[in-house]
Specification:
Number of strands: 11
Order of helices and strands: HEEHEHEHEHEHHEHEHEHHEHHE
Number of domains: 2
Oligomer: single chain
Number of helices: 13
Distance between the termini: 61 Å
Structural class: alpha/beta
CATH topology of the largest domain: Rossmann fold
Length: 369
């Protein structure tokens, strides 16, 4: 089979896999303290590999194939804290390609097991700041291709259409009481989802605003702040994020500040308390990044109510909580990290009933009517 023939076969195989897949659900979730404000969770945990990153991995593979970067027998290498690697391992196996994930040693054992289940191998490094360099080294020595999600996430996704997450959300919202959301809330790992959402709403002329939430140990919030105050001094890299899958020690090329309208910095204690609240309301466990998103929802809902606005808010259920059974769902993990669970649980419970959560916020249009 010629190289071009193999690429055509590979693209067709990925497209056939996509054609067999149903869309992910949009789940309504009631906020008792905010009558007239409707909240929805886009449940990305129902993808075949269990997370939002399934969309990204598919886009990255198609992008690499269309660019001629992958060929029959290529070793695929990615720098990932887990979920992207699980999804890329799935697509690599679909194409019969070897896959290596470079990830921090503290990545959950459940995610490592999921990568290995898909036929991938894991190369563990001491810190999140080392994974890119190690991935490039492996690609050079193995003659493979480094997918580089942090660079290519924002450009690999077809943000105009092709059933990206934004188009899917707006199609599913079409029969709801407020079909055009006031806010879509997302977190940033690469920044690719925020870029896709921001570009799509502008392309379609929607008034929806994009709120990007950032975990406690991450550089994206400060990077966004520096866009409005060039004199701001920021020290990178930050410590590694404790909320797996989101946050980065430095800004990444796929994070496009102009694509988002506001950002919130969420302490880890609140992210994980919100995770527990969402899990209790759904009757199943969700991951920590979903909790970070939900704190952003509560902030947006409070601002809408204060301005006398009704409407809808959409956020993302990024992955299931079964991948974090050893950490976020074990009391000793909180003791080891010195996290005050009781206070955080009370603050989130109060916020559900209408109280304001006091977190750092940058909203250039905060005063608009």
């Amino acid at each position: 089979m010629s190289r071009r023939d193999w690429v055509a076969w590979a693209v067709a195989r990925i497209e056939a896999d996509f054609n067999r897949s149903a869309d992910t659900h949009l789940i309504p979730l009631e906020l008792p303290g905010y009558p007239g404000i409707h909240v929805y969770l886009k449940d990305e945990s129902s993808h075949p590999t269990g997370s939002l990153k399934h969309r990204l991995a598919r886009s990255l593979f198609l992008y690499a194939l269309a660019n001629g970067w992958l060929h029959e027998g290529s070793t695929v290498i990615e720098a990932s804290s887990g979920s992207t690697a699980v999804s890329e391992a799935y697509f690599a196996r679909l194409l019969g390609l070897p896959f290596i994930a470079v990830m921090p040693a503290q990545t959950s054992p459940e995610k490592i097991a999921a990568i290995e289940f898909q036929g991938g191998a894991c190369d563990l490094v001491d810190g999140a700041g080392q994974i890119d360099a190690r991935a490039r080294e492996l690609a050079a020595t193995a003659g493979g291709h480094f997918m580089d999600q942090f660079t290519y996430a924002e450009r690999a996704t077809d943000w105009r259409a092709n059933n990206n997450i934004a188009e899917s959300v707006f199609r599913q919202m079409s029969l709801e009481p407020h079909p055009i959301p006031e806010w879509i809330v997302c977190s940033a790992g690469t920044g690719g989802t925020a870029a896709t959402l921001g570009r799509y709403v502008r392309y379609r002329g929607h008034g929806t605003r994009i709120l990007c939430v950032d975990p406690e140990h991450s550089a994206f919030f400060d990077h966004y702040a520096r866009c409005f105050d060039g004199s701001l001094q920021v020290n990178w890299p930050t410590p590694a994020s404790r909320i797996e899958g989101i946050g980065r020690p430095r800004p990444e090329p796929s994070f496009i500040p102009a694509c988002i309208d506001a950002t919130v910095k969420v302490p880890d204690a609140l992210s994980l308390a919100a995770m527990r609240q969402v899990s209790a309301r759904l009757g199943r466990r969700v991951g920590g990044s979903t909790g970070t998103n939900f704190v952003g929802v509560l902030c947006a809902a409070h601002a809408m109510r204060a301005a006398g606005r009704s409407g809808s808010i959409v956020t993302i259920l990024c992955d299931g909580g079964e991948r974090y059974a050893h950490s976020y769902y074990r009391p000793e993990w909180y003791e080891r990290h010195g996290i005050d669970v009781a206070t955080a649980d009370r603050l989130v419970a109060d916020a559900l009933m209408g109280a304001r959560i006091d977190v750092p916020t940058i909203d250039p249009e905060a005063g608009r009517a």
